[in-house]
Fold this protein.
Amino acid sequence: MNTGDKISLTLRLCGPRGFCAGVDRAIQIVVLALKKYGPPVYVRHEIVHNRYVVEGLQNLGAVFVKELDEIPETDQPVIFSAHGVPRSIPANARARNLFYLDATCPLVSKVHKQAIRHTRKGRHVLLVGHKGHPEVIGTMGQLGSDEVTLVETVEDANQLHPEDPNALGFVTQTTLSLDETADIIERLHQRFPALEAPAAESICYATTNRQEVVKLAAEGADHFLIVGAPNSSNSKRLVEVAIKAGAKASVLVQRVADIPWSELANAGVVGLSAGASAPEILVTEIIEAFRERFDMTLELVETVKETEEFPVVRELRDLELTASDMAFVNGV
């Protein structure tokens, strides 16, 4: 339908979306460290998987490195990313007398503790996750190589031949697809009835919340846009969830320039959400781009309101974020 020169379109905006408490905390740690200690502040790997956030922190004086050996002898802080690190990394930092701050999401740290608890009870750990993801590397790095096995698919579950099928426990990466993970865990339980679950759910609340609202908004949608980085696991899972829940098409975009406008020319309903490491300013940019191009009706699809907050590391709790600090942290 045309209204004047513009085609009518409904943009379904998901809530909750974007930054979760763990991402927010990690970014705050970098900003507060820069305020307290001045630049440079070194960060091992991307603090979160989002180019806009990383470049913004670089402009403030953060220096991102792949490994600790890239950091010169320094008294300046070194920050570990929200995804978590193998236990060898803090040990290496201590050996070099580096002052480090751990920005690992508390929910990832919880998975680390659950995995260690399994081993202390004599169980071999099955980690459901994606090979090569920083969180998976960090979780597997809490254990000895003979204490953990990665399970990526149902087929992997079918191929397992553990030394003791009656002494197994599992944990999962926090950012997986709920449905896909459920299938894998169901198969593991079928093959190994004695398999022990973690003490608490591994997939984090924010991942669950974002997937559930995308499922709701995807029904009847002609297209679905997920704002997030190509290396963001939780964002890529949202694309998959949208398709499975009924959207005719779905795509991951980082900025307005990535939107496939030609595919949206005949769309009546487009869904919009953002992964847990995508700042709200990127969502706002996309909404304005739709407003310019279409006679747009904005429809909010909301399931829950998130109120979770995680305190920053103890070393930085004597500082407060100003309004301008918060503007950057929240991406607005």
Observations:
- The chain has three domains: 2-19+205-302, 21-105+309-329, 107-191.
- The mean pLDDT is 94.
